[in-house]
Amino acid sequence: MIEKDSYKTITKASEGVLFKDRNSKFFGYAFPVTSEEEVKQHLETLKKQHHQAGHFCYAYQIGKTAQELSYRANDDGEPNNSAGMPIYGQIQSFEVTDILIVVLRYFGGTKLGVSGLINAYKTTAEMGLNASKIVKRTINVRYAVRFDYKNMGKVMRIAKEKNLNIVAQTLELSCEIIISVRLKKSQEIFEIFDAIFEVEIKNLND
After folding, report:
1. What is the DSSP string of 124-163?
2. 18 falls in which pLDDT band (50, 70, 90)?
3. Hey, which CATH number is domain 139-203, 3.30.1130.10, 2.60.40.1940, 3.40.50.170, 3.30.70.240?
4. Does domain 6-137 have CATH number 1.10.3720.10?
5. What is the pTM of this model?
């Protein structure tokens, strides 16, 4: 099985969206994130901006490959699985990652029931994602290829033949190039350089 080597995400925070149900107001926000620390920072900022809101429910997913994927869904005091998981369900539905969606609620005086809450949080998350610009990115592996100057011709010929993306290079007596390779081609490229005498290749993603 060839692992997927692209993913969808957002590159900037969305404008806030608003959903209303029986006087309760639900504000939805989407943020690009790559760490739990960033998740905490966005939540703290929203809590300062909306200090009268009663619930700050959210879900996030971080990671680009199946092995590194992590997620969390938080109901923040709403009935169990009535908020965080409906929000996370929209992250899965839109197939996005490295994203945080927060839906905060101002209570309007009328209880919505669990099914009403599920609908409100799901709908607000969906609106937030629809208001976001979703982009597709490739998953790349970065390698350092080290070699003596005398072997530069061999290395550069392979780089040209395979149309490799060289992101940095040091070409002196002792040379090094940093290449970025799409995940599905990474093993093939590694084996080509690894088989050359006096050329060393190292995975920088490890």
Report:
1. HHHHHHHTS-EEEEE-EEEEEEEEEGGGHHHHHHHHHHTT
2. very high
3. 3.30.70.240
4. no
5. 0.79
